[in-house]
């Protein structure tokens, strides 16, 4: 990452989090079709995301930077920012996202990679694609999408408590978001607002989501990275491992996530928890689980049934592509 981009990142985060000291420089290297972002504080980041294919032209000429971003829009934005090609699922996991919807491949891929988990409602899983997203959940999703959620999860509860304690509205941070928010504050991924509050329930705007995507998911090195096959996914490393499979019900992965296809168990000393992968013969995956027998270059992939797990067996010399 260049020095210039680091400086811009620091300034943009200040602007995003309610502490605009000076106006962001308007020099840009990309044009966009959006007429409503001229002189907006997030103009440069929005234009760069557009140039990188993370933001699409909807034909209206408007980006609507100050509108709340929805969960569906966020899934599409974050996947595109990482350069991940969405894959159509054979069945829809969500009652409110039809398989023939344009959004379905994005939601299903984001779900498989652990960006989102969905919510159980009346025995069915719901995504709520049109629902706006609060700041505390946005921070959580940013960490999951960037592959840093494993480090956040490793934060001690006592440490998270001490980090959040000075903020007057820290009690508004939901328990399941506390480690993520504390980790983000500790690592300057997020900062308090100018009045010293966290505003965890504030609805995030499309411009704020663009800032998070630009500075945490879209990197200088994306264009130089090798690409994986027809999907053209940028990856940072490839390793050859042994793969096995497992199938369990009514249990959760080590990171506390519901088990589903895409979750795999790893040796965290080899592949850090939270890392996104593409596994030969399996597809997109996220390192969210561990196992006593999973050591060194061994990956245990989750499959939905015992029959599928038995049929998968033990496979040697499987290529695993590290995406983060």
Features:
two-stranded antiparallel ribbon; 10 helices; alpha+beta; 30% helix; 10 strands; six-stranded mixed β-barrel; 2 domains; 324 residues; 15% strand; single chain; Barwin-like endoglucanases
Task: Itemize the secondary structure elements and their pairings.
Layout lengths: L2 H14 L26 H9 L19 H12 L21 H9 L6 E3 L2 E3 L8 H12 L2 H5 L3 H8 L13 H9 L19 H11 L10 E2 L4 E2 L2 E10 L16 E3 L10 E4 L3 E7 L8 E5 L3 H7 L2 E8 L2
Parallel strand pairs: 5-9, 6-8
Antiparallel strand pairs: 1-2, 3-4, 5-10, 6-9, 7-8, 7-10
Helix pairs in contact: 1-9, 2-9, 3-4, 3-9, 5-8, 7-8
The helix-strand sequence is HHHHEEHHHHHEEEEEEEHE
Distance between the termini: 15 Å
- Structural shape: globular
Helices and strands: which structural class? alpha+beta
* Major β-sheet strand ordering: 5-9-6-8-7-10
Cα-atom radius of gyration:
20 Å
Helix content: 25-40%
How many individual helices?
A: 10
**Low confidence ranges:** 1-29
Strand content: 5-15%
Please outline the major beta sheet.
6 strands, mixed, barrel
Task: Write down the domain tally.
Answer: 2
- Total DSSP E strands: 10
What integer is the average pLDDT?
A: 90
Walk me through the structure.
With 324 residues, this protein is α+β, with helices and mostly antiparallel strands. It has 2 domains: 3-223, no CATH class; 225-322, RlpA-like domain (Barwin-like endoglucanases, Beta Barrel), CATH 2.40.40. Helix content is 30%, strand content 15%. It has 10 helices and 10 strands. The chain has helices spanning 3-16, 43-51, 71-82, 104-112, 135-146, 149-153, 157-164, 178-186, 206-216, 306-312, and strands at residues 119-121, 124-126, 227-228, 233-234, 237-246, 263-265, 276-279, 283-289, 298-302, 315-322. A 6-stranded mixed β-barrel has the order 5-9-6-8-7-10. Helix 2 (43-51) crosses helix 9 (206-216). The chain starts with a helix and ends with a strand. The model is unreliable at 1-29 (pLDDT under 50).
């Amino acid at each position: 990452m260049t020095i210039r981009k680091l400086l811009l990142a620091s300034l943009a985060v200040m602007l995003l989090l309610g502490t605009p000291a000076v106006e962001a420089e308007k020099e840009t290297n990309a044009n966009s079709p959006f007429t409503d972002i001229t002189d907006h504080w997030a103009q440069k980041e929005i234009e760069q995301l557009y140039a990188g294919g993370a933001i699409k032209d909807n034909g209206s000429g408007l980006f609507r930077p100050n509108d709340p971003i929805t969960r569906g829009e966020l899934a599409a934005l974050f996947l595109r920012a990482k350069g991940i090609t969405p894959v159509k699922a054979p069945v829809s996991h969500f009652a409110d996202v039809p398989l023939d919807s344009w959004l379905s491949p994005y939601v299903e891929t984001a779900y498989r990679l652990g960006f989102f988990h969905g919510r159980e409602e009346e025995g069915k899983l719901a995504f709520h694609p049109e629902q706006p997203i609060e700041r505390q959940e946005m921070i959580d999703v940013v960490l999951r999408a960037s592959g840093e959620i494993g480090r956040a999860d490793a934060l001690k509860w006592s440490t998270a408590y001490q980090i959040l304690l000075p903020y007057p509205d820290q009690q508004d941070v939901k328990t399941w978001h506390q480690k993520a928010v504390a980790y983000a504050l500790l690592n300057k991924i997020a900062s308090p607002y100018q009045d010293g509050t966290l505003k965890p329930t504030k609805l995030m705007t499309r411009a704020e989501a663009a800032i998070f995507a630009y500075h945490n998911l879209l990197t200088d090195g994306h264009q130089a990275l090798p690409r994986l096959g027809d999907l053209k996914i940028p990856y940072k490393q490839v390793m050859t491992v042994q793969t096995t499979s497992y199938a369990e019900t009514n249990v959760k992965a080590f990171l506390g996530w519901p088990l589903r296809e895409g979750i795999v168990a790893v040796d965290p000393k080899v592949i850090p928890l939270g890392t996104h992968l593409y596994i030969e013969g399996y597809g997109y995956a996220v390192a969210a689980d561990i196992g006593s027998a999973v050591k060194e270059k061994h990956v245990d992939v989750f499959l939905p049934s015992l029959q599928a797990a038995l049929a998968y067996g033990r496979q040697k010399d499987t290529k695993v592509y590290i995406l983060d």
